[in-house]
């Protein structure tokens, strides 16, 4: 059973997410709804139970650390696990900074405790359980967490902080199987702005924003639920928000080393570039098993993200690719070999390596060559696209997709340390991957630290 905690679950977006999750998963979900109003929580819980969901209501205030930690404790005590945490609780504010008097400025800190620290405390308490379940974290931020606008200095500060915190956390926990989805709603038909702070730190009593084009709470909740279940990085909900996000990223890239016509100048996300430069998690996980000082071969290495990673750890490296321009960027990193390994002769005849790395590349006639290139005691790391990928993107041709178990059959003489065949998010793809060794004869079992 999936166990999901939703803060701010008594009203608005949180309550609607609970109803949609209950309607979708019915007996397959247990909801832990947190909010300040027991009466409102009970009303939402009744609606969810009508769909067959189990529900635990916890009256609490996320501005108090002890109550945040107690919420997680109650969820685990009630259901034994946590699969998702939705940090939805929040308050709004609308005031020009110059209109806030010194004696009232403390409410900026109060707002930060609700919008940022409440999410931080809940996430910190739930994280060990989410790591165990390879679960999902959702942070409901705001378009004000992407773009600052007049009258929203306090609110934007909390939401920018929230956005930055969860963006950094995403990078920390991704390799452990936990997804972090940050949602950026615009104006939504809830009462959050009516209850938000004015310049004196008292309830506004009305919305300070134009509500004509407000998104329905049902649509907003649906988009967040969908993003959470698909393990999306971000859910930016409005056309204006997406345009603002794009222009901001594009503007950040101007004047960079690529110039206006380069990748940054076209508004590509710096995070996307970082992902392309970073080694795959499979390589990071098993790379330390390569014998110290052993030479690593990377086939179809491209611009050498894995060569650089191994070279930085003291390994001599050899990169093979037919793209001479890409290989030129590896000058000083290690040995490079420009060769068409699909149509030309094998360029490494007679050579063996402490590790052979093949990623996002498949040419079946090379399986025997790859196998013979692994030295005694050496490691093979092979990850590429598998059947099913045609449903989410490219490559989609069957020739470029591995059949179930194909890598296991390709390297029969190696000892298999790990094998996986399945779906990975961010970006969505189907992969098959293997980590295997050519064992040396030994009187005692070899130990491979996993």
UniProtKB/TrEMBL annotation:
SUPFAM superfamilies: NAD(P)-binding Rossmann-fold domains, S-adenosyl-L-methionine-dependent methyltransferases. The keyword Oxidoreductase applies. It comes from the Bacteria. GO terms for molecular function: oxidoreductase activity. Keywords: Oxidoreductase. InterPro entries: KR_dom (IPR057326), Methyltransf_25 (IPR041698), NAD(P)-bd_dom_sf (IPR036291), SAM-dependent_MTases_sf (IPR029063), Sc_DH/Rdtase_CS (IPR020904), SDR_fam (IPR002347). Gene3D superfamilies: NAD(P)-binding Rossmann-like Domain, Vaccinia Virus protein VP39. Residues 2-191 form the Ketoreductase domain. GO terms for cellular component: membrane. The keyword Lipid metabolism does not apply. NCBIfam families: PRK06181.1 (NF004825). Belongs to the short-chain dehydrogenases/reductases (SDR) family. PANTHER family: DEHYDROGENASE/REDUCTASE SDR FAMILY MEMBER 7B (PTHR44196), DEHYDROGENASE_REDUCTASE SDR FAMILY MEMBER 7B (PTHR44196:SF1). This is SDR family oxidoreductase. It comes from Ramlibacter montanisoli. The lineage of its organism: Bacteria, Pseudomonadati, Pseudomonadota, Betaproteobacteria, Burkholderiales.
């Amino acid at each position: 059973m999936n166990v999901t905690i939703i803060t701010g679950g008594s009203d608005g977006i949180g309550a609607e997410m609970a109803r949609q999750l209950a309607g979708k998963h019915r007996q397959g979900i247990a909801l832990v709804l947190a909010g300040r109003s027991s009466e409102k929580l009970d009303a939402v819980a009744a609606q969810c139970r009508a769909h067959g969901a189990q529900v635990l209501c916890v009256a609490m205030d996320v501005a108090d650390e002890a109550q945040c930690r107690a919420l997680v404790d109650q969820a685990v005590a009630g259901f034994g696990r946590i699969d998702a945490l939705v940090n939805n609780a929040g308050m709004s504010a609308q005031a020009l900074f110059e209109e806030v008097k010194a004696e009232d400025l403390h409410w900026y800190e109060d707002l930060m405790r609700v919008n940022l620290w409440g999410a931080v405390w809940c996430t910190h308490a739930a994280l060990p359980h989410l790591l165990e379940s390879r679960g999902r974290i959702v942070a409901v931020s705001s378009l004000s967490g992407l773009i600052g606008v007049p009258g929203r200095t306090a609110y934007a500060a909390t939401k920018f902080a929230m956005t930055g915190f969860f963006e950094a956390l995403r990078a920390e926990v991704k390799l452990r199987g936990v997804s972090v989805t940050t949602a950026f709603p615009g104006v939504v038909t809830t009462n959050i702005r009516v209850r938000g702070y004015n310049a004196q730190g008292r309830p506004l009593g009305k919305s300070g924003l134009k509500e004509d084009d407000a998104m329905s709470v049902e649509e907003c909740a649906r988009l967040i639920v969908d993003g959470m279940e698909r393990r999306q990085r971000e859910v930016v909900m409005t056309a204006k928000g997406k345009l603002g996000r794009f222009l901001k990223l594009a503007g950040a890239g101007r004047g960079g080393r690529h110039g206006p016509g380069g990748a940054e100048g076209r508004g590509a996300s710096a995070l996307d570039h970082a992902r392309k430069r970073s080694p795959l998690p499979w390589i990071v996980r098993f790379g330390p098993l390569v014998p110290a000082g052993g030479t690593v071969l990377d086939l179809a290495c491209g611009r050498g993200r894995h060569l650089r990673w191994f070279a930085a750890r003291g390994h001599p490296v050899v990169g093979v690719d037919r793209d001479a321009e890409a290989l030129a960027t590896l000058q000083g990193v290690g040995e490079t070999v420009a060769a068409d390994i699909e149509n030309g002769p094998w360029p490494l005849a007679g050579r063996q390596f402490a590790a052979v790395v093949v990623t996002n590349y498949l040419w079946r006639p090379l399986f025997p060559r790859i196998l013979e290139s692994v030295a005694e005691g050496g490691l093979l790391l092979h990850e590429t696209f598998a059947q099913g990928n045609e449903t989410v993107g490219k490559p989609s041709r069957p020739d470029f997709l591995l059949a179930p178990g194909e890598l296991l059959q390709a390297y029969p003489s190696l000892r298999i340390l790990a094998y996986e065949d399945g779906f990975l998010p961010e970006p969505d793809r189907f992969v098959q991957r293997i980590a295997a060794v050519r064992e040396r004869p030994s009187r005692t079992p070899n130990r491979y630290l996993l």
